[in-house]
Write a structure and sequence with these properties.
The chain contains eleven helices and eleven strands. The chain has about 300 residues and is of the alpha/beta class. The chain has two domains: about 70 residues, no CATH class; about 190 residues, Vaccinia Virus protein VP39 (Rossmann fold). β6, α8 and β7 form a beta-alpha-beta unit. It is elongated and about 65 Å long. The protein starts with a strand and ends with a strand. Bound molecules: S-adenosylmethionine.
Length: about 300
């Protein structure tokens, strides 16, 4: 149910919220980002403060609720995206909530790498693809958009994540092309052995000992199931290297995101496994190697 307030009231709330960031490790621009997600005001209208005279501004939540959420930002360092209930990612606006990882901008690169691979190898552009550890469903939905002839099987161990993924898949009308499965990595996909054209995964890859040192928004609020990659951070990447050959077709595509510093180890794991060819690494927006792709022999 939408709520409304006057432009003047909202302008006053915005000024107070911006002032409240002083002396805090919080960017004052977050106030406008939150208002963009929760009202129909544009970034320009907010920046020019041109809405103060409007008799009515429609909000997705009440002004009291907005204030309570902002206090959670200040006091608990709750991520802004959880407070808004949504995040932009590629051309999507995805629902997010505690219990699901907030999709990160660099993960968008996985989609571009996958689409490029299908342009170079058109046989990859149809058939079964899997998104292992789908979280909010971001990768699965973007793949469905970018590769109109594939069917996607998206897996997650977390029921909370799958519920959010389901909502996002329904929002973008891909329920007929994306099948959700609960379970650990490939285990719900036994029926696809030898029949998968492409595997994409952004698995947990942070070494356990580093998790407590991340920003409080991450350590205290994002699900550790989505972050914790075991002692060296490579537990799940190692598992995906070793298990994927049973599922990929000959020539099938394998692509993962890793943490900075991990691609070299993943390349060595792929080489040692012996079932992969054309192993390549790619950098993120900052020029840091973060992605590893390969083809099954
Ligand atoms: C880094 S998050 C990635 C989420 C999403 N794909 C994205 O890029 O935003 C890793 C995901 O893997 C899931 N996960 C962790 N262990 C898993 C397992 N054993 N089997 C399946 N999914 C798992 C987590 O619940 C989480 O959603």
């Amino acid at each position: 149910m939408p709520f409304s307030t006057t432009g003047q009231e909202l302008a006053q709330w915005r000024s107070r919220a911006i002032r409240s960031t002083q002396g805090q490790d919080i960017d004052p621009r977050e106030v406008d980002w939150l208002l963009q997600e929760l009202t129909n005001l544009t970034a320009l209208a907010l920046r020019l403060e041109s809405f103060g005279d409007q008799p009515e501004i429609v909000l997705k939540i009440s002004l009291e609720d907005l204030e309570q959420r902002w206090q959670k930002r200040l006091e608990d360092r709750s991520p802004l995206q959880y407070l808004a209930g949504s995040t932009p990612w590629r051309n999507l606006n995805l629902q997010v909530a505690p219990g699901v990882l907030i999709p990160r901008p660099e993960t968008e690169i996985l989609i571009d790498l996958a689409i490029t691979a299908t342009q170079d190898n058109p046989e990859l552009a149809r058939g079964n693809w899997v998104d292992l550890g789908t979280g909010s469903g971001a990768i699965a939905i973007a793949l469905a958009q970018g590769l109109p002839e594939i069917t996607i099987h998206a897996v997650d161990e977390s029921p909370e994540a799958l519920a959010i993924a389901q909502a996002n898949i329904t929002k973008y009308n891909y329920a007929h092309r994306i099948n959700l499965h609960q379970g650990s990595w490939w285990s719900p996909l036994e029926f696809l052995q030898g029949q998968v054209q492409g595997m994409i995964s952004n698995p947990p890859y942070i070494p356990t000992s580093l998790i407590a040192q991340l920003q409080p928004e991450v350590t205290n609020h994002e699900p550790h199931l989505a972050l914790d990659g075991g002692t060296d951070g490579l537990d799940d990447l190692r598992h995906l290297v070793n298990t994927a050959p049973d599922y990929l077709q000959s020539g099938g595509f394998w692509l993962v995101e890793t943490m900075a510093g991990q691609p070299e180890a993943v390349v060595q794991l792929l080489q040692a496994q012996g079932s992969y060819r054309d192993i390549l690494t790619f950098a993120d927006f900052a020029g840091v190697e973060r992605f590893v792709q390969a083809r099954k022999c």
